[in-house]
Structures are given as C-alpha cells and as structure tokens.
Amino acid sequence: FFTGVRTTRIYCRPVCQVRPAKSANVVFFPTAAAAERAGFRPCLRCRPETAPGSPAWRGTATTVARGMRLIQTGFLDRASVDELAHKLGIGPRHLLRLFLRHAGATPIEIAATRRVQVAKRLIDDTAMPLSAIAFAAGFGSVRRFNDAFRAIYGRPPSSFRRTVRAPTKQGVADQHRPTGRTSR
Is the model's pLDDT at 56 over the cut of 60? Predict the structure, then answer.
C-alpha cells in the first residue's frame, strides 16, 4: 500500500524516511497507479513509482556499479576519469563522490588495485616475462608496475616468481609447491 498526503498531493511508501504527516491529512492507496490516478505525485525521496531493485530505485549505486564494470574491463587503462564520468553521464567530481561513498575508494585506486591483481594472477599462472606481464596488466611502464607491486605487497614482483611458482614447459603452473618446510 501507499500513503498520500492531501495537503502536498504527494504519495510515499510506508517506509519513507520523511516526517509523518498529520493523520487527518493522510489517505491510503493500494497501488502507485491508484495514487497517481487520484492526482498525487510520487515522493522524490522514496521513489514509490519505481519497483524495488530496479536501477531507478537503487539510484546512485547503479551508476557506481556500471563504473565498476567498466573499470574491471580495463576502461581506465585506455581512458581518463573524465571520460569515465562522461560515459556514465555525470561530472568527474560527482563520480569521485559517488565512488568514495559506495566503494570507499576512487576510480583510480580501484583501477590500480585491479591492475596489480591481474599482474599477480599472471605471475602465478604463466611463465610470461615480468615486462610482458606489466604491459598485459595495463601498466604504462615496468617501473610503475614494480612501484605499484611493492606498494601493495611490500616486495618486488620477481620475488613472487622465485618463491611461489614452479613453471612448466607449457608456461602454466600446474602445481604450486610450498617454499618452506612444512610443520607436523
């Protein structure tokens, strides 16, 4: 059901966070369509005209989710944050605010983390040279790759290759061997 306020001609969901109206001014409707037919307009806060779970109902979280999908496909490896914001239909400053609110990090930080994770996976699973891994993961140079890797893991990428992987002839690790002694 939906509640409508006679004085403002606005209808809301029962869970809307706005201050409740006087009970004498409240009218109830079984559907949003019935409220609109009676001349009421939807509340801009709880958005009763949208279905729960729809992109319009989820609001800015949908925009951030679209941005995250683009970043995961490597969009920021070939474009700027301004271009990402333009593709999402918002301004760069608003994009930054939304990402900080919903993801807890900026788009650049999320893209950098993705690049390091892709590189780590390539180090673990392939016999590619580290310079090829740097460019395959989206880094512009081997130096940036090494700096980012050290910032995240505290050691250079070459140390992971020496201690973690046992390469095979095909170039893919088929088994990971422990580097130290096992305790009983």
Answer: no
